[in-house]
Amino acid sequence: MISIEEMRQSVKGEILIGVPMSEHTSFKIGGNADFVIKPIDKDDAIATARYFQKKNQPFIVLGKGSNVLVSDYGLRLPVVFFEEALSKYEINGRNVYAEAGVDLQRLSVATFKHNLSGMEMLAGIPGSLGGALLMNAGAYGQEIYDTLNWVEIVGGGEKRKLKKKEIKIKYRETEFKDEVLIAAEFSLNKLDDKSYEFQKKVREENLTKRRESQPLSMPNAGCIFKNVIIDDEIVSAGRLIDQCGLKGLKVGQAMVSEKHANFIVNLGKAKADDVVKLIRTIKAKVKAQHQVSLALEIKMMGFEDLNIQNLTG
Ligand code: EPU
């Protein structure tokens, strides 16, 4: 049992009851979270993570809610919003310190303005640095781990600093499961004027390409599935879905985007249940046509008790 009075002794931030997750996810989908904690600063964020971990109480950390599907029945586990508590970054020469709640887009723009290279291609990825580090986010050949020095995490109730070589990283995957990301440091590369102008052009082209090829103006959760590695080559899940003719397929108010088939868009009042049905159909069609099992890139939250067949395989 979670006791708010007891929590108050360890955690300083606001504790809210019954918070609609549709207002806190980019998909604009999801029932109420029973309770939400908003730590006030970095120390409070660390104290909150340690409090739950020491009690062996599972909890959910949400940054921008940009890569998640929350069930229509909401969340029974406590939800911690770190965005405000972990929002600082500092650029010192080539070194960049940033906390997990920092918006990735903001960090990408700021580092590039300092003539630093290493994060400029991540500009269009929605979400916070913490989320990006947890899933080894990347775009246009750059990955967030490429330039990392260390991360600060809370795991097993203790704060720890891990160097890059101590962390196992795979394509869109890391070893972190129950750990909470707090902050990270990167060493970026200094760009001379000529390379800066070149990178600026590439970056603008990529942003334009993304705007043209992704449904950024409609509520969505980014790419639904991971791309697939076949014979050491990365194959676009979007392309595989597109080849099955699924663009525009609707269940309720959820639709496979007409622009990019690896996006599902919320046409207004989509339910998580509609999205789950679409995911099942897409997986089945891609399996039948391409003999490929698509794995989810988004995180499903609040589905544990709903007897939903495993969608991740
Ligand atoms: N394509 C199609 N039909 C589609 C979508 C794509 O034919 O509906 C084709 C494109 O024409 C292109 C190829 O597939 O030839 C690759 O498409 P794209 O450049 O859009 O890249 P992607 O592999 O589909 C990945 C990331 C995106 C990221 C883009 C750009 C994953 C799962 N997807 O998509 O990330 O924005 O590259 O770097 O890694 C996300 O992480 O949320 C996400 C959307």
What do these coordinates show?
By secondary structure, the chain is α+β, with helices and mostly antiparallel strands. The chain folds into 3 domains: 4-81, Uridine Diphospho-n-acetylenolpyruvylglucosamine Reductase, domain 2 (2-Layer Sandwich); 89-193, Uridine Diphospho-n-acetylenolpyruvylglucosamine Reductase, domain 3 (2-Layer Sandwich), CATH 3.30.465.10; 228-312, UDP-N-acetylenolpyruvoylglucosamine reductase, C-terminal domain (Uridine Diphospho-n-acetylenolpyruvylglucosamine Reductase, domain 1), CATH 3.90.78.10. It is 26% helix and 27% strand. It has helices at 4-8, 42-54, 104-113, 129-134, 193-213, 237-243, 272-290, and strands at residues 14-20, 32-38, 60-62, 68-70, 79-81, 89-92, 95-99, 116-117, 138-139, 142-143, 148-155, 158-163, 169-170, 173-174, 180-187, 189-190, 228-230, 233-235, 250-251, 254-256, 264-266, 299-301. The protein has a 5-stranded antiparallel β-sheet with strand order 6-7-15-11-12. It starts with a helix and ends in a 12-residue tail after the last strand. The mean pLDDT is 93.
